[in-house]
Amino acid sequence: MQEMTKGANVGLATLSEDTGSVIVSLGWSSASGDGDADVSVLLLDADGKARSDADFFFYNHPAAPDGSVQLLGKTPTANGNEDRISLDLTAMPADVQQVVVAASRYGDDRFGTLEDLQLTLADGSGEGLLAFRITDASVESAFIFGELYRRGEEWKFRAVGQGYETGLAGLATDYGIDVDDADEAEEAEEEHEAGGTSEAEENVPAAAPVLEVPAVTLEQAPAPEAPAAPAAGGVEAAAPKRPRTAKKKVTLPKATRKSLAENDSWRPSRLFPASSLKSDHERETRATSILLSVMAQVPEFGRRLTAAFGAPAGRMETFTEVSLPHGETPKRPDGVIRVERAGRLWTALVETKTNGNPLKAEQVQDYMDIAARRGYEAVITVSNDVALEGSPLVDVKIDGRRKHKVALWHLSWAEVTQQAQMLIRHEGVGSAAHAALLEEFLHYLQHENSGCHGFQNMGPAWVPVRNGIDEEILCQGDERAVQVVESWERLIRQVCLRLGGELGQKVLPVQRAKRGSDPRSRRADLADRLCEDGRLHAEIRIDGSVGILAITADLRTGKLRISLEIPRPEQGSPLTWTKRLVRQLAEAPADLHIETLVEGRGSGPRGTLERLRPEPGELLPKDGGRITGFRLSLFKGMGSSRGSAETGFIRSVDAAVDRFHSTVVTQLERPAGRRPQQDRATAPV
């Protein structure tokens, strides 16, 4: 991978022959684990200006209709997070001469508080081509990381590294984007936080069946605060201050219609029935055919899954049980995906597994060899497992002598489910028929007999490690502990996928690792810690929530602890803080533990909500110590078995996280002056 310096440029064709579609990734980390930024892309003409507001892509306008630009969202890395952008340069309009890649922070946050700022660019096969690291960030709230630009028929990349103290609004204005006045936005926000209702909000129907997304508007009236459990249906967004250009998007109805069945024993007919499946082979064949068919029939869904793999935006066709020659015995991959754009074909072979069946290395290796010989671009594996950085699900050998490169990608069924949920429950699709088709597909995935339920097994090392901790005979350096740590990390990532799909928000695991640490070394350290104290620990960040959720599984006591630390309010007296906190938690479980955090010594007074309701003052330190915040915790018995049965460990973690989020997190008010990410539509200044 070529390391770029500020101001340097390079032709993409000199780095790879497969640069028709590229993936640009912006990465960063923070010591606290909660540092974040939003990526944006601007398309510029020969004069260095956007042709219209529609050439500005950001969190409220994530994709171009022609597929030339698509913001793919964040993924966790060993040291932090990475936000990826798919650019199909073959689909880029001819009058677009520059593609500017930038990022911005919200409110008072600055890039100087983030670490490991970098841009990387990969070709269509996923091979990293170049990297540009930014080391001089300080007070900037927006940054141009780099740009791609045309020189004749060639695309080149320039490392820019230019910061803006005026935020996303200042950056966008420089390129001709019409941004509404920020003062007006602040007035709208103050009105919202004070409990007022804007004119736009008054005009929102209570249960409109469609979601209309403003394509390019930076500013609109803030949305009402999200309910405890987001409804399945969408509402028409508040009227923006700029004309809309996006088509209406259809989501699932907000409330299900009353059934016409005479009684509960009547089962509704299903487009994709799952109850009749008898064998793993049937499940695998059915799941593959349904997945590929829905991908081809619902363009938004197919594009969502394949854009991250370097596929162009174009006409997609899918096939199953295709026979391909391979030596003396033809091979039959489970499926083939072909995308055609402007006469160019992109092809991927698909291998799927359902239930707990693992991928077979020799099978995947055969498909990699076939793809290389036939000039195909990728092999995609789909299973219930979750891929981890530095821990491949299958080991395959790449013949470096071959000129053509084949990318190996993996999808978890949990990720497939999450993408379907995001489209039909939160973002919308192009037609009611597509929404209905995705709804049936989602019902199939979630059916107990489909075999497509995501990560389901903590692995064979779970019981020996749990028993070794209980008997105090597990020693540091035990490889089985590393296997348990990897399984735990897969489970946490699946929890994030599930919550993200249900809430319509970004949910990511927080990585607190030393800069440049190797994933294997990090997991080995965590495994040694597990052997020493018998605990598995993880943190997740839910956009819009008041803090970071901590999940601890204590294998010695058999208890799960879900907790959240919240800062003290900036105004008022300590007694006022405690009374207000108890009032906010009026509907929370009585067994919720509340602990005062005291400067200099950590823990302070604590008690259950049941005991504190009549006397909130019991949370005040007796010696007058300075309160820095509060820790809220719920405890639950831990499932013992390694599987996902009702009594299993995986099911108990899901239940504990769900209970804490629905009964505690959703009741807490966010700190004044900072709106949640899912509500923000105004440009930070």
Give a brief outline of the structure.
The protein has 14 helices and 26 strands.
Q: Would you write up a description of this structure?
A:
With 685 residues, the chain is α+β, with helices and mostly antiparallel strands. The chain has 14 helices and 26 strands. Strand 9 and strand 10 form a beta hairpin. Helix 5 (299-306) crosses helix 7 (413-427) and helix 10 packs across helix 11 (519-533). It is globular.
Any chance you could write out the topology, listing elements then pairs?
Layout: E1 2-4, E2 9-11, E3 21-29, E4 38-44, E5 56-57, E6 69-76, E7 81-88, E8 98-104, E9 115-122, E10 128-133, E11 142-151, E12 154-164, H1 167-174, H2 182-193, H3 199-202, E13 210-212, E14 248-250, H4 280-297, H5 299-306, E15 315-320, E16 335-341, E17 344-352, H6 361-374, E18 378-383, E19 407-412, H7 413-427, H8 432-446, H9 462-470, H10 479-503, E20 507-509, H11 519-533, E21 535-542, E22 548-554, E23 559-567, H12 574-584, E24 593-598, E25 602-608, H13 609-612, E26 627-637, H14 649-663
Parallel strand pairs: 1-10, 17-18, 18-19
Antiparallel strand pairs: 2-12, 3-7, 3-9, 4-5, 4-8, 6-7, 8-11, 9-10, 11-12, 13-14, 15-16, 16-17, 20-21, 21-22, 22-23, 23-26, 24-25, 24-26
Helix pairs in contact: 4-5, 4-8, 5-7, 7-8, 7-10, 10-11
Q: What are the low-pLDDT stretches, counting only 5+ consecutive residues below 50?
A: 181-246, 672-685
Strand content: 25-35%
Shape: globular
Which structural class best describes the helix and strand composition? alpha+beta
How many strand segments?
26
Biggest sheet layout: 7 strands, antiparallel
Cα Rg: 26 Å
Q: Specify the number of helices.
A: 14
Averaging pLDDT over every residue, what do you get?
Answer: 82
How far is the N terminus from the C terminus?
Answer: 35 Å
Query: Into which percent range does the helicity of residues fall?
Result: 25-40%
**Assembly classification:** single chain
Spatial ordering of strands, largest sheet: 20-21-22-23-26-24-25
